[in-house]
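Writing this down once: the sequence line spells out the residues, with the fold written below as integer tokens. This is how one looks:
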Amino acid sequence: MHDDVLVLEKKLSGILLETGSRKNNHDQWVVLGCGLNLVSFPENTETPATSLFEVTKKSFTLEEVLI
């Protein structure tokens, strides 16, 4: 299963998953999210990355993306 969205073989978006627990008891937690590179993107990553702006040459507001 692939958890990244690739455009032109570059990572545009991905699922973010973080887990943890507390040492003093048995509480465990999971945080699940989704990341989307709108304007910028990290350099020197295992999978080359891109942004929505780089792919489309168009700026999007956060509201447009969420709709």
Q: What stands out?
A: The chain has a mean pLDDT of 90. The radius of gyration is 16 Å. Residues 7 and 58 are 15 Å apart (CA to CA).
